[in-house]
Amino acid sequence: MILAHANLVGDGISAFRQKDFARSIDLLSKAIDKDKNDWQARMYLAMSYYATGNIYLGAVHFRYLKDNCPIAEVRGKAESALAMMDSELKLTSKDPDKPREPHK
Question: What is the pLDDT of residue 30?
């Protein structure tokens, strides 16, 4: 079972690097379902959501990392991402009908 989980994470990260964010989200979500504290999978999942323009779900995962990850470097990256996303979240909430463009 551990090998299957590792494949989900590795394949999800590969999909992220190939900018196949839908596949990355699918695989990494499955990995998180198996181990909610897989910090690497959760970080890439958050970045995948952000890359697709879904800053809300990206922020949920970054916040989980910031609040729960025991690795200081990962917490710091998540906190930086949240700070960067904060202004985008505020802008989007002012005009909820205006979709946010995905990052390229």
Answer: 96
Most distant CA atoms of the chain, gap in Å = 45
Give the Cα separation of 51 and 103 in Å (integer).
5
Tokens found for residue 39: 């910090």
Q: For the chain, how many structural domains are there in total?
A: 1
Query: What distance in Å separates the CA atoms of residue 15 and residue 10, rounded to the nearest whole number?
Result: 9
Q: For the domain that residue 28 is a member of, what is the CATH number?
A: 1.25.40.10
Rounded Cα distance, 19 and 80, in Å: 22
Only one residue has tokens 């998180």, namely: 32
The phi, psi pair for 100, rounded to 5°, reads -90, 140
> Which residue's structure tokens are 């499955």?
30
pTM over 0.90: no
Residues of the chain with pLDDT under 70: 1-5, 89, 91-104
Measured in Å, how far apart are the chain's first and last C-alpha atoms?
34
Please indicate, yes or no, if residue 76 is contained in any of the structural domains: yes
**Neighbour count for residue 12 (Cβ, 10 Å):** 26
